[in-house]
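Figure 3 (text version): C-alpha cells given as input.
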C-alpha cells in the first residue's frame, strides 16, 4: 500500500478530534455528574499511562503498525487472531459513534426522519473521505478542530449570566468505589480508545515527534472536555444527570438579551465535526487493518463494504439509547480496558521475553 504521510501537528489535531468525538454529547461517568469535570482530569492522568504504554510499544518497533507488531511478536497465526480482535474493537467504536449521531439528530432536529435517511448520506461522505486517504482526512480535520476549540472557548462568555458556582458543590459526594469506576470508565472512553492510533503512527513524517504530538492532543482534548463539563454543571446543577444529552440542554438554557437563544446548535456542530472525524478514522483503520491481515496491496476496495458494515452494526448492536447507555456505563470500561491496556501490556511483555525488537527511536 502507498504510504501516506502526515505531520506531528496534524496527528495532534486528529487525536483531539478523535478524543472529543461523541463524548462531547454523550459523556460516560454521568453518575458522578457534579464531579464529572474533575474526574475527567483524574482519568486523563490515568489514560496518559495507558497511552504511554502503547507509545513505548511503537518506539520498540518503529515503522510498524500495531498489526505488524502482533505478527512479529506472536507469529503469523496468533498475531492475526489478536489483530482480528482489534478489528472488532475499531468496528464497535465507529458503530457506537454513528449510533450516537443518529440518536442525537432524531431527538433534537429530525424527529420524524427514518434512520436510514440520516445514516446513508453520512456513511457515503465517510466512505468518500476514507478513499481519499489519511492525508486528506488530516488536512480536512485542521479547520474543524480550530472551529470546535473556538466554539468551546466562546462558551465561557456565553454562560456568565447563567453559571452558578454553588451548583458545583458538594465535591466528591460519591463513594470511593463509584469514583474509581467512573474514572476508569472515562480513562478508557474516550481517552483509551486512542490505541487506534497505533495503526497510524508509522505514517507520521517525523517519528521522533510522535510521543509529544499524541500527549499534547490528549491533554488539550481532556482540558476542553473538562471545561465544557464544568460549565454544564454550573448551569444545570444536579438536574444535568437526568438528561441523556446534558450538553445540549446546557446550551439550550443560554439566553442573552432575547437575541442569542437556542444555542444547542453549538454542541451539535461540534459533534457533527468531531464525530465525523472519529467515525472516519475508525473506518480507515478498519480498512487498512483488514488489508494487512489479508495481505492485500490496497485498502480502498474494502472501504465501501466496511462502511456498510459499520452502518449495519450501528443499527443492530445499539437498537436503543437505553441499551447504549447501559453498555457505556457497565460493559465498555472492561472491554476497552482489555484493548487499551491489557493487550498492549501483554504484547510488550511477550516482546521482551522473545527479544529481537528493532532499535528504539531517539527522543
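Below: residues designed for each position.
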Amino acid at each position: 500500500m502507498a504510504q501516506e504521510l502526515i505531520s506531528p501537528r496534524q496527528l495532534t489535531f486528529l487525536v483531539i478530534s478523535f478524543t472529543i468525538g461523541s463524548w462531547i454529547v454523550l459523556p460516560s461517568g454521568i453518575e458522578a455528574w457534579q464531579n464529572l469535570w474533575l474526574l475527567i482530569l483524574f482519568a486523563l492522568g490515568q489514560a496518559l499511562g495507558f497511552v504511554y504504554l502503547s507509545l513505548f510499544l511503537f518506539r520498540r518497533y518503529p515503522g510498524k503498525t500495531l498489526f505488524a507488531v502482533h505478527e512479529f511478536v506472536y507469529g503469523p497465526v496468533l498475531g492475526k487472531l489478536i489483530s482480528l480482535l482489534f478489528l472488532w474493537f475499531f468496528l464497535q467504536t465507529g458503530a457506537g459513534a454513528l449510533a450516537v449521531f443518529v440518536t442525537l439528530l432524531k431527538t433534537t432536529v429530525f424527529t420524524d426522519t427514518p434512520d436510514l435517511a440520516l445514516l446513508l448520506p453520512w456513511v457515503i461522505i465517510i466512505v468518500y473521505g476514507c478513499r481519499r486517504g489519511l492525508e486528506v482526512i488530516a488536512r480536512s480535520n485542521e479547520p474543524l478542530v480550530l472551529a470546535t476549540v473556538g466554539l468551546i472557548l466562546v462558551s465561557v462568555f456565553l454562560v456568565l449570566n447563567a453559571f452558578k458556582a454553588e451548583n458545583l458543590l458538594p465535591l466528591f459526594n460519591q463513594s470511593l468505589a463509584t469514583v474509581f469506576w467512573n474514572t476508569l470508565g472515562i480513562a478508557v472512553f474516550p481517552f483509551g480508545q486512542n490505541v487506534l492510533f497505533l495503526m497510524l503512527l508509522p505514517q507520521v513524517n517525523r517519528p521522533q515527534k510522535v510521543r509529544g504530538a499524541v500527549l499534547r492532543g490528549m491533554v488539550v482534548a481532556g482540558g476542553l472536555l473538562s471545561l465544557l463539563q464544568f460549565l454544564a454543571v454550573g448551569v444545570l446543577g444536579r438536574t444535568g444527570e437526568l438528561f441523556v444529552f446534558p450538553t445540549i440542554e446546557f446550551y439550550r438554557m443560554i439566553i442573552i438579551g432575547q437575541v442569542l437563544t437556542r444555542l444547542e446548535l453549538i454542541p451539535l456542530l461540534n459533534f457533527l465535526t468531531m464525530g465525523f472525524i472519529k467515525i472516519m478514522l475508525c473506518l480507515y483503520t478498519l480498512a487498512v487493518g483488514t488489508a494487512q491481515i489479508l495481505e492485500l496491496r490496497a485498502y480502498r476496495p474494502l472501504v465501501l463494504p466496511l462502511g456498510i458494515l459499520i452502518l449495519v452494526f450501528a443499527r443492530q448492536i445499539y437498537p436503543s439509547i437505553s441499551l447504549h447507555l447501559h453498555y457505556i456505563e457497565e460493559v465498555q470500561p472492561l472491554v476497552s480496558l482489555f484493548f487499551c491496556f491489557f493487550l498492549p501490556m501483554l504484547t510488550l511483555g511477550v516482546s521482551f521475553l522473545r527479544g529481537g525488537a528493532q532499535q528504539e527511536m531517539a527522543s
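The mean pLDDT is 89.
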